[in-house]
Design goal:
The structure is a homohexamer of 331-residue chains.
Chain A lengths: L1 E5 L3 E5 L11 E7 L1 H11 L3 E5 L1 E2 L3 H12 L8 E2 L6 E5 L7 E5 L17 H6 L3 E5 L1 H5 L1 H16 L3 E5 L12 H12 L5 E3 L2 H7 L8 H12 L3 E10 L2 E9 L4 E3 L3 E2 L8 H15 L3 H15 L11 H9 L5 E2 L1
Parallel strand pairs in A: 1-4, 1-9, 2-7, 5-6, 9-10, 10-11, 11-12
Antiparallel strand pairs in A: 2-3, 7-8, 12-13, 13-14, 13-15
GO molecular function, one term (chains A, B, C, D, E, F): kinase activity
Keywords (chains A, B, C, D, E, F): Kinase, Transferase
Protein name (chains A, B, C, D, E, F): Carbohydrate kinase
Chain lengths: 331, 331, 331, 331, 331, 331
């Protein structure tokens, strides 16, 4: 099974040990992004994965390429042009203090200014069985929207699978009527999609589907409308101030929910991508829904315990923790 | 509103990542002290603040000055003389292991050997609306006592506000009858004070006020005696091994108590100063007592989640957490 | 009271701040091992301690020696030969993610290829009152088995005390019938032992003693059989997902159990050695069983809050925490 | 004497210890720029200095402000708007390997998109005696050109001194005929300038002045044309593979050249700004030309031995090294 | 052009900043080895490269694989078996203090215990045009000798190019008559080799060729005997205590020598591999000998200025420094 | 041969990588002092060494003790009292920028306030063959002078050797007529001394001996006057801006001078102590003067290449470098 992901690579800069940016001169540099995260996790799981993006044609592009290769992702679909990489600063939270993310210019990044002409989508599709398209590309610029729509359409037409996540970031959209604008984008891409990650709120608030019956019915209605095979996501709870999370997964015939899992959070960012990677694993391995959602929920739990956005879990590790609750030492 | 604080600047040296001093050669250097902490926090809150102290007339004094300026505190009231800065080592605790603080020589520091003649208190008072005097200066040396008493008297006589905190450190006093000695000091300074931070225990054990009725009555009796406007402090609890804290605040007419807040502690030291800075904010902004104490209690909760003694919170951050309980990511 | 320990010194390499090995180029280097841990802790407690082992005859041996001296352990019984030190990588766990230990070649280490001829056991015994023998040496190689058996026999014959811990590591044994093989080893060494650390499971699964009555009866039966003075160990519990631990301690006349203590874990490895060191302290100080087991259980709690394997607690610190529950700052 | 500088604040990110960006995840963060460098050095020299720039209105702007305050520069002329700060990565060279600087997007930085309306130039001029304008602002964007020209004109008209440096960066200009375009810019600003930093090559290649006689005559011709008071710069040599540098300084009546000084380079960037700050010091202190140029050349030598762009030398330090050649330890 | 290298991957552990191992707990971890170094450099130069080796089948093997992928080397020819990776500690020298390398067990590493059966040499040869075989494999163990000889023979028989370097490490050989033993090994492999790296001393001392005429004649005689196409190496000089190096390169028709280049050494290890990678580049690009040797000598100069063994230079960088002597800043 | 040293242990705090104190929050902590340095080096050379000093009776004292033990120095002559350790900050120089040392309070350190009553000098003398007394103790306080004089007298009277170094630090003396005061101190201690480290300038300026003939004659006159066995020191030169150093060594019959050695300086502090330790080695080993002074001069050269004050050289290393000039890699 060969996966490819289309999305932006971002430079993440974070101070060490829960320090604030004004408390230190030291930063940790990582290269990340929804596509990187999902492909890296799938590579850890043993699959062949590629990244489809444009990196700066300078030292930063080379360094990002090396980081991507280190995750086990294939780099031959990367393109290099322009001179800017989007970046963000993450000041890691602790206790009641939330993690603070500050974005630097994303709209003018090498990815942000590249439309479909920057890529060789035919090659991408020829070398992949499933293409993941990050929803942020629909918010970013006209160029990234163009590329995302083109890729989704071509992939579907080639009979390959398309996976999409909503990932709506209101702060990135500058249009006067964001919601209407984004609804249009989503409606344009969804007909080409087979697997979708999102929440009920994405369906009601973004797609403005009307909630007539239960949430389950709404989801099935959505899946039927766009001929979606799998729809998945997570829900968070807070019980006695302890954060918890469960995963859900729908096919058009049935659905499954994972047990609620307590979250001990080392790094909040990227855990959703771990969930997605694990769901895709169940999909390509043809695991049962329940098996898949439990694996994915635990993978997300573990991703919360790993520094940085990129979930470096292995299948074996997820199974070990599922089978040995409370295990705290492996020799 | 212009604030000034009189107090010692100390060099804090702490090993990284919960290591003990004999486990590493690496130390983190910070410049701290009650005055620094309160002024830094008020500067973060948007006020003009100054520090009134004597720093060594050498590289360490220059470095301390740079650190103070970085916190946004004005440095033109600083004086430079002698060659020693008081310092302490903090080995950060974890779980059942308490934080261990080891002091180096404070009595011979540039601050410790400077009496009122080292300062230009007229300028201090002319450029400030409220002067905070750290109670530790009453314990330290004859010189610092002299300076503290002189400054309190002159400030009050000039019609500016005086804020005082008890901050009794038995280990710093070497007099045979510490309590009697310190009681005398407190009785001498309190008539000049408008805002006082302390606990019921300070009133009964140090001032040796007799507890006849309730704690509330004792506090009001104390405030009446010295014509104190606001009296404030915090109380700690332990429920199911979870540490909690509440703040209290008295005017002579009414009082307010914050909800109990759970403490997740990254760094224990300096959180009391965050509480004080926030109370002073409510005072100068003429917020209601309840509003003030809730803001202050949350500010103290957040200060526990920040490395080092200096509470680098902002008003906006405190309000965000008050209004969005459980929020753990801000983009 | 003079203690000596026979066992391997290992090089521990761990990435900082809960990072995985593929996330960083930085490692922390420590020298550790059951013998090092117990002797270091006893040295912190004020006793004279020595280590009996073979280190590489190169820079690593010198560096290991310096690390051992830093712990306050005497180094004149060390021997230097060959060129390899056993090592392991520890990726520190967080929340649901277990700590992952990866061993490098232990069988060919300087310790692993040294039999009793490499040592001057007469000198060891002459200069010690109690010799601790780590059970791992019975699993490792024919050479280490030879040395351990020889040392136990000679120590007992000289009228000095022998302390032994089971410490069975199935992954180190390569014999076809591990259990039978190890049972033979244990049966050979136990007649020389006075203090033994282990669990009921060691008695039933390794020694294959039959559980007829209660666990207490089984333990007494075992102690009677081998004329053991003290038998001690710990038991772990999980209540509401909070890990807890209690210690137990048997003489042939009575036994004691500590209160269950909650574990907040900074570093999982080496806490059992802290428990052993504290039990030995009670033994040589002739403390009562109950006093000893409570001291030991709290020492183990504190060891969980210290980075690395070596428990750098002091007696004073353990007593302070026992007497002031919840204390989180010492100045 | 009160100085102000107009120019961009940049975020500098550099890996530690001569490592390349693909060899580490660690970066050092500094805030820098010609204006920052010169004002910081003058503040170290004991003068009042301010920075006139636009910083992002987010966490990065706050952090940059704290860094600027730490250098002793006044921050009340700073403005906060937009969300991007220009940044660059510096991979420090060693031996034959040159330092590699990689710029990220500067054109869309908060500074780059701000014209004169973003500032309160009246206040800048009222609070300053000399305004330094960085020539890079003429290359950057239409907005920065507008701001620079406006400020130069207003400052001159108010009878305050204007200092300008050529600082031509061809890579920043995107106009078809860069040289002609930049010549026009320089000709527009020079009539308002009193002190100019540059080289003979700037006069011949950028201003396209014709070299008829000697270099000295060309410089005087240039100074006469624009009524420049002081013109200064440095020249580099390489003798026996040892890098050397000398400074020159012209008034319209006389000129001075410093001895050639050997360069031992720890950090190449920012040393020119140290030279400029020292020349300005001689200017405001009315030192003789020769005295000034020797002080400035040594200040530049020392700046090459300090990490980062910001020259943290003191007057006392420069004099000590001038008076004690070869001194390598001060206690 | 597709390259493959056969050789051991070693774990290099070095303390930071010229510290000794007993001065710090911090180590930098790198994965290195002659094969890694040459393939990494060739990958930086833009070629497809693969590594042929056996890594441990555990976390260390995975981490090593990630490191190799980060260098741009293909990882699909890697094999995973056993549990040990050879390692060494490098204490970086300074001035008169030499770099101290301490090896840990190499003979029992996963590579050391693997003979030709561990590999799929057919696949290696099918996917490569030139195979580099590290001479250390002839010194290490019977298994590595077997694998090296088998691979050389099969590669030559398949009509692909074989590159070999002498790289004699006397400390690795334990045979009674090392020289005779190794001579036999070399004589066995050389008939299959096309490009050889070595020195005149390798020819006289190891191969025991008799020096009758000049060095040039000896080299030609050696090349004729084994039908070697290219023979290359470096020579070091010390002039006025300044270290210098030149490269030489022989075809059977002509030879070339580079200018002597001064060495400023940041890290001594691995620079020879940079030289080899650059010679191979000239070979496959069919550059003239003189052009090749100058490129290679400068590449080696630059490799001395980069931390670690792996030469992360690019072609563009080498040409820039060749064409701009003394350049110390690139923006 | 058993050595003991009497002197202060100081805490050294230095920023990493040539950074200034205002450029970083990171410090490296070391425990140092003339006595520590000489004893540590002699311990590395294989001798039994002890330190005679008073350390603070708190965590810092314990940490200092661990550091001393790590150097291989025996710790049983240490005493623990009071709460302060003298400290200094070292900002490492580079090129023309000198190393800047800033002392914190030494006069009130545990060592500074301890006179001979704090020690068990009988035990010191009984357990030592040669006692080294650091001359700084004559400058520091009345208490340290008392202790130094007492120890020198008692050691000489017991027939053990006394070694003394001038080590005059004008900044530590506060007496009105420093030179006369110190001359008196020196004249009081010299009659008990056997080996003295100093310079001709110490003899002329401090002892105010009149230079009538040559320097050699002056030294012999001094040695005769006080019955000194060996007098040794170093001289520095600067040739072509390259720093050089030679050692000299006088017995009363002959003298020897080492070759001039070039200095490549990583850390300037403590190199004199390496020279002293090596001279003492020659003394106890009864090496010839020339052999001794060459060994000592090279040991000092190597000490300049090691971070921190403590010279961690070995005899073997010194001989290797003496015998293999230019060697830069040992495997």
């Amino acid at each position: 099974m060969r996966f490819a992901a289309f999305g932006e690579v971002m430079l993440r800069l974070s101070p060490p040990e829960y320090l604030l940016l004004d408390q230190t001169n030291d930063l940790r540099m990582d290269y990340t992004g929804t596509g990187v995260n999902i492909m890296a996790n799938l590579a850890q799981f043993g699959y062949e994965t590629s990244l489809v993006t444009v990196l700066p044609d300078n030292r930063l592009g080379q360094v990002a390429k090396a980081a991507i290769a280190k995750y086990g992702i294939k780099t031959d679909l990367l393109r290099f042009a322009h001179h800017h990489i989007g970046s963000y600063f993450a000041e890691n939270g602790y206790g009641a203090r939330p993690t603070q993310v500050t974005y630097q210019n994303r709209h003018h990044s090498s990815f942000g200014v590249s439309n479909h002409e920057a890529y060789d989508f035919e090659k991408v599709i020829a070398e992949s069985d499933l293409v993941q398209i990050c929803g942020i590309s629909l918010s970013l610029t006209d160029d990234t929207r163009d590329a995302a729509h083109t890729l989704a359409k071509k992939t579907a037409e080639a009979g390959k699978k398309v996976c999409f996540d909503f990932n709506f970031r209101p702060s990135l959209n500058t249009e006067p009527d964001k919601i209407a604008f984004m609804r249009e984008q989503y409606e344009k891409i969804l007909p080409y999609c087979d697997i979708v990650f999102g929440s009920v709120r994405d369906l009601t608030d973004l797609l403005q589907l009307e909630m007539i019956g239960t949430e389950d019915e709404l989801i099935i209605q959505f899946m039927d409308k766009y001929q979606i095979e799998w729809f998945a996501g997570t829900r968070r709870f807070s019980e006695n101030k302890q954060k918890q999370q469960e995963g859900f997964l729908y096919s058009r015939e049935e659905y499954a929910v994972s047990p609620k899992r307590e979250l001990t959070i080392l790094d909040r960012i990227g855990a959703g991508d771990a969930y997605a990677a694990a769901i895709l694993t169940g999909y390509v391995e043809r695991w049962r829904l329940q098996e898949t959602v439990e694996f994915a929920a635990m993978n997300a739990v573990l991703a919360h315990t790993i520094h940085g956005d990129v979930p470096l879990t292995t299948k074996e590790q997820v199974f070990t923790v599922l089978e040995n609750p409370g295990i705290d030492l492996i020799r």
